[in-house]
Amino acid sequence: MATSPLLEALTRRVLVLDGAMGTSLQSCPDCRMDDWLGRENCSEILTKSRPDMIQRIHETFLEAGADCIETNTFGANLLVGAEFDDEVVAMTRELNREGVEIARAACDRHATPDRPRFVLGSMGPGTKLVSLGQTEWDLMLRSYEEQAEGLLDGGVDAFLIETCQDLLQVRCAVNACIKALEARGRDPFDVPIMVSITIETTGTMLLGSDIASAVNALRMLPIASLGLNCATGPVEMTSHVEYLCRHWDRFVSVVPNAGLPVLVDGEASYPLQPRPFAEAMRRFVEDRGVNLVGGCCGTTPEHIAALVDLVGDRPAPKREIVPLEPGCSSLYGFTEFQQDNSFLIVAERTNANGSRKFKRLLDAEDWDALVSMGREELRGGSHLLDVCVDFVGRDGARDMAEVASRYATSLNAPIMIDSTEAPTIEAGLKRLGGKCVVNSINLEDGERRLDEICPLLKAHGAACVALTIDEDPQAGMAKTADRKLEIATRIHELFTGKWGLDECDLLFDPLTFTIATGVEEDRALGHETLEGIRLIAERFPKCGILLGLSNISFGLRAPARAVLNSVFLDHARARGLTAAIVHASKILPRTKIDEEKWAAAEWLIFDRRGAERPEGMSEDFDPLLHFIGLFPEDGETEERVSMESLTVPERLQRHIIDGEDDGLAETLDEALVDLAPLEIINDHLLAGMKIVGELFGDGRMQLPFVLQSAEVMKKAVARLEPLMDKVEGDVGRGSIVLATVSGDVHDIGKNLVDIILTNNGYTVHNIGIKQSVEQIVAAWRETRADAIGMSGLLVKSVTVMEQNLRAFNELGISVPVILGGAALTRFHAEKRLRDIYEGPLYYGKDAFDGLRVCDRISNDALDELDGEITERLVKRQAAEATVAAAREATRERGDTDTLVAARPLAAVTELPAVPFFGSRLVEEVPIEEVFAYVNRTALYRGQWGLRKGSMDADEYAAHLAAHADPVFERLKAECRAEPILAPKVVYGWWPANGDGDDLVVFDAEDHDREIARFAFPRQSSRQRRCLADYFRPLESGERDVVGFHCVTMGEEVSRRARTLFEADRYADYLYLHGFGVECAEGLAEMWHKRMRAEIGIGHHDDPDIRRLFGQNYQGCRYSFGYPACPEMSDQETLFKLLEPERIGCRLTENWQIDPEQSTSALVVHHPDAAYFSA
């Protein structure tokens, strides 16, 4: 067996691959339009028209020190060629051969005896994927086979299947390479097959596969190396590379882009410069043990030269491999065969031979309903789906292709392909990208079945179930433990010896037979199966053991079957069973089974008759009859508790408390028989809302569920209002004018108050955002409301509130006022603002606090609130007196200078190099990339109000998984499908210096001309820090750099949220509004990361995006209004520099950015930069 020189080189030292062909072509000054022969974007055609230019590009990388060169054949396959014309298709093999010959000529010019150069045949993903149904396996196989033959014609050193987006595509390309090699009597040891997948910024491949599922799915294929390339820069690849280096037992490659691309003037620009690119790669070479490094999009010969300097003559690394646990995978995720706290649950109902419903839907070709059945099985707790379409009179291969192709992308679960027909199994394997399990092989016809199926297992890297059946005409289906072990041993030898397959991918099914027939020969079958499981588990500990569990109870009634199956499963697991094909919801824990029934099931399983009968039983005791007798035909059914068991008043409240509108109309109709509409509202529905408020106040109900209750309340009132007689009077308990103050665009808090008050019987005049005092006064005069409520998020808004109160005084308005908002504190409202206003004034911490104030206004009980305020102020005054006395004592002791010793800032010896000065406009940002940077903790807890409360960590995680994650995924799907979010960015870099407490910004072109100046406060204690300290001082004579950015998600998301609010869809309003806000924050986080990468400090980033939210990176971004830069009016200066009007942003009179889902920041690169209070 020949060994590849490339593999030998990789065993000796770390190798360097070349950089980006596409980037090099774009920068070629002599590349003309007519060079493309009328086929723009078909760079492979340049192999024909400009071989000189292609060879020159190869040589620039070889001169930089690259060991390996990729051929210019990335898209040179039949499927891609067909998108151009028949001529390109016809020359596919030739283009690949010539591509290798050009690369070989370049390599030969630079190769030396001690430093050979290698040609890797580039095989890209094409533009059609099998998993998405855009092409078929056989067409793709032929397409790649033609390409592989051409590469071999040219004498390629290795195949490089790169930028892979679909695991099924990888498998197809690998099989094509193997076919081409076998046709020449060669193998992958001679010409290695290397694979490089692409993990997007979302953390998965394009189709959703994570790194674990990729490693698992590709592990059994004859691949020499597995790596990552494209999509992201080095930092974003870190966690995936770490996983590869820990679990992949062959060579590992890393070929990133030069950072995350930025669209500049409609073209992708890659910000990571050569030195920081190499620095970011250092950890992979020095710490992780990567064998092959190179550059993808945006990398130049300079990038490769920096890598060559980093790698030097570094010997091949030695890695400690942690073997991957045996398992299987879907297209999206990996599932271990050995479950920690359970067994591997294989769903049994997606089987035409075991489910009448599945068979009926299959015969009707109701594919969507079959997908729904699969989802239902997974919701029931299954880990895998056993899929069988074998059905007399139907085309099994066609049916399997239809079902498998849908299950592949619609369900996140591995598939067990269950069929007696090899073509049906192959049809499934050709459409399922994950690592499947084939059910099954046996020796019923000798080795014929293995000879049919094992080649498919090798080609597709699949695992397999083996039934203990052989060709014995009398005892073929092994019923005794010894026979089960005998057949298992023989299958194991053939599977591992003859076919070279991994025993970890073998699951034995020792067969289960019913013990409920009463036939004497069947009585011991359960015990024999259990003993067979024990023997096989001891003999083959690396193999799995699976049973079709329900066979044991065939013939019994459903309640009896559930008990017998559950007890048998418990004993089987104790003896080594690892998996079972079951209806997961029908398996009962021991705590749910009566002890008498449990014992009776054991007596049946172990055939406790005669001398073995249980104590106290008669000599003719029959465990089968005894067990059946415990489940009479008229046995009790489980008691069902429902709304119907409650009284009508209780049901009315329960609808509100549970936020459940199912059956609401019927309950209201029933209530109207005895109760008047107003009575229903005031005495029952509002009573339910009162309980909702109490639950929220105690932390036992979370905000989204409060809003669901409000939605049901709104529907109930809407149904009752037309039935009210005029003489019944007004439903309302009082009225209020609500407004967000002038210059403030935030309305979520105000709208939540509106929702709660409205659905507690108040009339709310919600006049909107950015309301001037004149507009507020006009609304109050028009409505003569009982109170005015003002809200605002900004610090500046508190000042506006104070100005409004003074205006009320001047106009003689003394109506009760309720104030709220994030920037307002209770003490400031109840002390300073209450002293200013000449009427009653109260603070509303949240919507229910505001409701409490309105209730007191409505009931003329403000004295109670006034007394509480007086008590709080007295306590505050006493506390302040104590603090003042302590400070005076400190001064008298002379301790006034006991400040923290100022720590000098770290010296920045080399300033980062920015890629440009001035601003850039980015009008297209992939929404999927933004989603990856959404802080779910801030979204779930902060925006959606899903707080932990009294739940423990596990309960809270389960609560979020049930109630938050599905909403998050739904909103992402909606925003992918519709133009709800429009992420845009304007950002830039400017020369700058610190000047005392000022930051001085200079012109982008004339670095000596001051164009802006920011004045920042300095700490009066602690480190006496000022934000300007993070920049080179003006007197140094050396210009530092400062960055600014402004991001927005656009106006549509705010408009959609308002529409939901107006439609009384309160929970959906809350969800979408918060989602938009956190997407804007995610975009700001993402763009700050890109800006760090641009200036070469991105390699300090934590690779885990979630840890970036804790500022685990170098530098800092500050938004105006933060303690270190509190002056909101500085937004005007930022707007002059960046011109965010270009992305639809405007400043309000309070210097807030409109649309609301927008944010801006000043970006500092200094390693000590951090948030602090001035």
List the main descriptive attributes of the protein structure presented here.
alpha/beta, 1174 residues, eight-stranded parallel beta barrel, 34 strands, eight-stranded parallel β-sheet, single chain
- Overall form: flat
How many β-strand stretches?
34
Q: How are the strands ordered across the major sheet?
A: 1-10-7-6-5-4-3-2
How far from one another are the termini? Answer: 72 Å
Q: What portion of the residues fall into strands of 2 or more residues? A: 5-15%
Gyration radius over CA: 36 Å
- Major sheet characteristics: 8 strands, parallel
Mean pLDDT: 90
Share of helical residues: 40-55%
- SS content category: alpha/beta
- Uncertain spans: 636-641, 726-731
Count of individual helical segments:
41
